Amino acid sequence: MGFHGLNFDCIRKWCMNKIINVLVVVAFLIFVIIIIFAASIGSNSPSIIASTSSVLSTKKIGWGIKRSDNHEQPDLGQENKKIIDEFDGYAMGNKDKPYIYLTFDVGYEGGYTSKILDVLKENNVQGLFFITGQFVKTSEDIVRRMIDEGHIIGNHTSKHKTMPDISNEEINEDVMSLHKQVFEKFNYEMKYIRPPKGEYSEKSIAYTNSLGYKTVMWSFAYDDWDNDKQGREEYGKKKILDNLHNGEIMLLHATSKDNSNILDEVIKETKKMGYEFKSIDEFER
User: Fold this and answer.
1) How far apart (Å, rounded) are the C-alpha atoms in residues 253 and 43?
2) Residues 277, 152 share a domain
3) The whole model's pTM is what?
């Protein structure tokens, strides 16, 4: 009887050890599966997004619009509108709301941005300024003033490279190096992006989306960026006021002397015509 009892006890201990080992292995496998599953559904990694974006078109598209008369909304073009809508970007707002969203591209400091900020402050208008790495490097005080006075800072990339012409890795560097620079200097996290030169592709927009950015294009612009075409203030004023429309995202260049001189009158006349300036954070489709 003692022999048989001893044998049974050994067998029992052996079985218990085996069961414990099996349970440990099963628990570990369940843990691994949970981690893999959580990563697969929760990851916003650019590398994962990039692999899916490889099936998207790399065709370079230049943003352009066809103006309409009588303050009607312009034609953004079928391809432009399709892509910007598909990737949840902004280009033009609600056709029934008399809202204007004022945006500026400022790749470098031409000497006029402070005056533009003065005008915006006097008229209680908030702007969205798309800045580059060069602007941050040379005009840190102006960027800080923009933020302090309630304006929104947007990413126009560090080196202003045409996105469809470069790899996802280069886009990441051009976008996120500026993002990091602005965050570290001003404790400000940008969330809007405007592709340099208004050139983009399905793939480039999908990729910048994966970096946490919303693309903002425009429904009005004119040739104010050309330094050789300054001194046409009446032309600029007429061009802007004649093309006002509901839901307009207006693009002006802060490098333009003409814009700095006409902005106050443009804002006042725009308000007289029944339009209201809104922050891009208040955008309505």
Assistant:
1) 37
2) yes
3) 0.81
* Domain range enclosing 29: 2-42
Q: Is the dihedral of CA 198, 201, 204, 281 positive or negative?
A: positive
Query: Which residue of the set 85, 253, 264, 281 is catalytic?
Result: 253
Annotated active-site residue 105? The verdict is yes
**Residue 124, domain CATH:** 3.20.20.370
Query: How do residues 102-140 score in pLDDT, each as one tens digit?
Result: 999 999 999 999 999 999 999 999 999 999 999 999 999
**Position 12 confidence tier, pLDDT thresholds 50, 70, 90:** low
Q: Give the end-to-end CA distance of the chain in Å, rounded to a whole number.
A: 87
Catalytic residue among 105, 174, 224, 258: 105
* Residue 245: active-site member: no
Does the pLDDT at position 237 exceed 80? yes
Q: Encode pLDDT of 20-36 as tens digits.
A: 666 655 566 666 455 55
